[in-house]
Each structure stands twice: as structure tokens, then as C-alpha cells.
Design brief:
This protein has about 230 residues and is an alpha+beta fold. The chain has helices at about 5-15, 30-40, 50-55, 65-70, 90-95, 175-185, 190-200, 210-220, and strands at about 25, 60, 100, 115, 120-125, 130, 140-145, 150-155. The protein starts with a helix and ends in a 12-residue tail after the last helix.
Length: about 230
């Protein structure tokens, strides 16, 4: 069974490896290089050949190929077995996600996919993303808050064993997230609020009025997600 945590572990194992357009965990060989050059000449330009040749023998991916590599491989080093039913572009992957939304609604679940037009990354938790970013970068770790991600989605071929749980709704006249949490008998400390914020799509929470108003609005509606959601 393919899981969200398995996807994260696979992505972490690929850090530092090269980006080759149109690949999904293949071993870089001269034959593969020649085939991809013929297939995608705009990506495999002559000016890049020296670097491509220096990467022969390594495991290579493109952005959505980082996800396919996990789906199609038994482990982080095994040869992937192509599956045409799952062979989609980054934009196609977003369309396949039955559970998806804009970034401000993203749940704090490792293995969630994050998207911008034509590109996809893997959210690893704690504000971290691993992405096959491009020829000049390879597979790298970036901060969620520092990239222009627009949407999130749950990969339809991966199990996400997290049951979302919510705080009870507070009174409509509450004006402070701290007091509102206290009124429900909940922990209102800053560290816990930071975890709550991350679970509700607010990365790098710092306790600003805008952030607290959003948390309070969700709590009033009974839609504030608990950070301690448990395995289903």
C-alpha cells in the first residue's frame, strides 16, 4: 500500500539527485539520455549535455516524476515499472486529486501535494517541501512559505490515514482566540496555537492580529482543525 509517509520518505531519499525532464526514478544512462533528447529537444539542449553526462548512473526524476517514482517503485532504489493509468502531468495530477483546495485551506498532513501552474512538490510537514525543481536545482528541499504554491491536493493513488478532527465551536461573541480556546477548556499557549495554525493552513504563525482573526473565525464556525488529529 502506498502511503503519505512513504511518499515523504521516498522524496527525502532523492534529495540532491538530478532533475531530468520526462523521467520518474529511471537510472540515467546514455541510452535514456539519447531517447529523452529526441523526445524533448527543448529540454535536452546541447549546452546542457556536459552536465547530463556527468549525471549518468544516478536516479533521476522530473517534478511529477518524483511522485510517479514512488508509486511505481518497490523501494527508493528499485527500478520503476511504468503505469500508463497514472502517467499524468503536474497539471493533470492536480485535476486527478479529488480532495484539493487553495493553499490557505491546506491541512497539515505530510505527503500532501502542492501545486503551481506546471509544477508540483511534496509537502513534508513543518513548513518543508521537497521538489524536483528543475535542471539547475535538481531535487531540493524548500520552504512552503517561500514559493508561490497556489493549490494543494491529496494524490488519488496514495493512502492518507489521518482523520480530521475539529475543536467545538466557541461562542459567537468571543473576540480573542486565546480566550475562546480557554472558554472551551483547551490549551491556549503560543506553542499550541502555532501547531493549530499550521494545521489550518497558516505557515510560520507569529500571532499577528490577521492570523488570530482567521483562527477565531474558524473556531466560531466549528471548523478549526485540531493539530492532534489521529490515525484513522
Amino acid at each position: 500500500m502506498k502511503t503519505n509517509t512513504g511518499l515523504v520518505k521516498y522524496a527525502e531519499a532523492q534529495l540532491g539527485r538530478p532533475y531530468w525532464y520526462g523521467t520518474f526514478g529511471n537510472k540515467a544512462t546514455q541510452d535514456l539520455l539519447e531517447r529523452k533528447t529526441a523526445q524533448y529537444p527543448q529540454h535536452y539542449q546541447q549546452a546542457r549535455m556536459e552536465k547530463y553526462v556527468s549525471q549518468l548512473g544516478m536516479r533521476v526524476h522530473d517534478c511529477v516524476g518524483l511522485i510517479k517514482g514512488y508509486l511505481w517503485s518497490d523501494d527508493v532504489n528499485s527500478t520503476p515499472e511504468y503505469n500508463s493509468a497514472q502517467d499524468v502531468s503536474a497539471n493533470g495530477m492536480l485535476k486527478m486529486c479529488k480532495q484539493r483546495g487553495r493553499m490557505h485551506t491546506m491541512p497539515e498532513i505530510p505527503g500532501i501535494l502542492v501545486f503551481m501552474p506546471g509544477h508540483v512538490g511534496i509537502y513534508c510537514g513543518a513548513g518543508r517541501v521537497i521538489e524536483a525543481r528543475g535542471f539547475h536545482y535538481g531535487v531540493v528541499e524548500t520552504k512552503l512559505s517561500e514559493r508561490n504554491w497556489e493549490n494543494w491536493g491529496k494524490c488519488p493513488w496514495i493512502k492518507y490515514p489521518i482523520a480530521t478532527r475539529y475543536f467545538g465551536a466557541c461562542a459567537k461573541d468571543e473576540t480573542s482566540i486565546v480566550d475562546a480556546l480557554k472558554s472551551l477548556g483547551e490549551n491556549s499557549g503560543y506553542a499550541y496555537r502555532k501547531r493549530i495554525a499550521a494545521s489550518n493552513g497558516i505557515a510560520d504563525y507569529s500571532g499577528t492580529a490577521k492570523e488570530n482573526i482567521r483562527l477565531l473565525s474558524l473556531l466560531r464556525q466549528g471548523k478549526l482543525i485540531r493539530p492532534d488529529s489521529i490515525a484513522a
